């Protein structure tokens, strides 16, 4: 019922408003986004809520059995929970030595935000905010620039491939580039999933999920690489591989996003140009032309009589100015008749009037 009223309101709003193409597209994007959010919320609710309730009940049962079996007070059990939770990040070794700090800085710059380790001191939190304010724009520009270079490289490869295959059109289209970057992104994610599945002991599906969440900068933090067996200190090669995966993968994703942004900007520019041309045509069509005579007469650019004319009657919509040579004394059989049958163009020629353009 709520969704039906929501859509009815949107439809009524659209029918009552007259908007430009850009406004219609923006409103359509907002409506589609909120509709997509509603659909996503409904699907996640149906898939996860029941399992969440069962898991909570199971954990509460374990907690009660543990307290009863070992005769632990609620305060002591709470202290154990804090110790276990706080000790979890240290399984990977020191998080704030250079290797761990470099991994954290990369995550901040890439806006992934796993949440596996966070600054605790006031100085660390303050520096993290200042570092992010400079690093995030720098990272966005870098990834965007690398994405543009990748698109350029892909366009060269596509053109050469089309020439080799003797295609009729050898230029690389936007669709070709989107397919190329999409295939490259798929290769990176599937390959990365195999690597992380081997090193982290995850299933291939969980590794694929981790790679996707990482390269889309969602970064839930439920799966984080380099957090087991002192990997940050004992496996420098694996650390380097993880960092290369994040940086190069984000660059490829940026290439795909760059194409989408360029396409949207092109559509916006085309619509703006079209609207400007329509406005110019409309202004030109309605711009009046006046004759400086004793009785001022105004015509628009289609030759229709506008106002203050002695030659208009109930058929004034048919009155027009002939553009042929009949004003020079030669009658044209093709031009539209004047509203006043006694009017002759030669009378205008003989009356020393001047033609000027009226201001709108």
In short:
The protein is mainly alpha-helical and 360 residues long. It has helices at residues 2-16, 21-70, 74-87, 98-109, 122-164, 174-200, 204-215, 231-234, 236-285, 345-349; strands spanning 289-292, 297-299, 354-357. A three-stranded antiparallel sheet has the order 2-1-3, with no helix packed on it.
Written description of the protein model:
This protein is mainly alpha-helical and 360 residues long. 64% of the residues lie in helices and 3% in strands. Helix 5 (122-164) packs across helix 9 (236-285) and helix 6 (174-200) packs across helix 7 (204-215). It is extended and about 90 Å long. The two termini are 52 Å apart. 14% of the residues are buried. Mean pLDDT is 78; it is low at 291-331, 333-339 and 346-360.
